[in-house]
Amino acid sequence: MKRMTFVLAAATAAAVILSGCQAQQPITPDSSSATAPPTSAQTDEPTAQESAQAWADETFGTFEAFTVTGSGAEKIVFPDDAKSGFYTITWAPGHFANEDSYAQVYGEDGTYHEAGMADYVGDSASVAYGLDSSVGPAGWIAVEGGAGDWSITVSPISALPALPETGGYDAYLYAGDEQPVVFSTLNSGRLNVRQFNGIDPTDSILPQEDFTAVGTLLAGPSVVNVQLESVSPWTRSTN
User: Fold this and answer.
1) How many Å is the Cα radius of gyration of the chain?
2) Could you tell me if 122 and 170 are in contact, meaning their C-beta atoms sit under 8 angstroms apart?
3) How far is CA 11 from CA 31, 38, 67, in A?
4) pLDDT digits (tens, 9 = 90+) for 3-15
5) 225 with 194: CB under 8 angstroms?
């Protein structure tokens, strides 16, 4: 993304014939073709999101995104290069009428990974998984029998969008500074907001009884999972 332009000019000689005799006229420098001074090299600094994406690839690795579709119960085993990532599940409308319509990540040893749960009244949710080294590598996604028709896309962490001011049951990249923060919904329903830095397990924002998540958003780069009960979007503000 660096670009440098140099302008090179050559002097031009001219011969003019005057009154039957040939005479060489003095060359007048052409200011329009004078060599321009070289421009300074322009360096395009990466954006905060681009820096977070590079961090995500280095910290959690990358792989080719893939999609699996099905109906009812199924087990989706993560490839060796996809032990950390995020999955987006889309259900058929009305799926939440069945309490066993959720999806859940389990470790290679069969242990339950709390951060990998997608249990949402809406029709689509995204969850980052395999971010907490203390619980071991992720093994698979278990889709429960009441889920009906569903589609799951598994993608690398670097493909996550930047954390917005409002959103849904989703995962995000955060590249900002440390700041006090409040996540709240327009309707009753608990919020669970968790932040992961890829080094130490981090649970910096805890759900509160008044249906808001209040705490400190630590300096990025990091991954933020937002899980909520209400279909209403959440909003983020400083406290």
Assistant:
1) 29
2) no
3) 11, 18, 63
4) 333 333 333 333 3
5) yes
35, amino acid identity: T
SS3 26: coil
Contacts of 2 (CB under 8 A, 6+ apart): 41, 42, 43, 44
Domain spans of the chain, in order of start? 48-237
- Cα 114–237–183 angle (5° rounding)? 25
- Taking the C-alpha atoms of residue 221 and residue 181, their distance in angstroms, rounded to an integer, is 16
Token pair in block for residue 169: 């049951």
- Choose among 140, 100, 151: nearest CA to 116: 140
DSSP letter for 98, please.
S
Distance (Å, rounded) from C-alpha 102 to C-alpha 146?
8
Does residue 98 contact residue 73 with C-beta atoms inside 8 Å?
no
Tokens 């990358």 belong to which residue?
A: 62
Amino acid at 24: Q
Instruction: Say how many C-beta atoms besides its own lie within 10 A of residue 104's C-beta.
Output: 18
Percent share of the chain, pLDDT over 90: 43
Q: CB neighbours of 141 closer than 8 A, spacing ≥ 6?
A: 75, 76, 78, 87, 103, 104, 105, 106, 116, 129, 152, 154
- Amino acid in position 169: Y
pLDDT tens profile 61-84: 999 999 999 998 999 999 999 999
Q: 79: cis peptide before it, omega within 30°? A: no
Polymer length in residues for the chain: 239
Tokens for 201?
């397990």
Residue 189 CA to residue 122 CA, distance in Å, equals 13
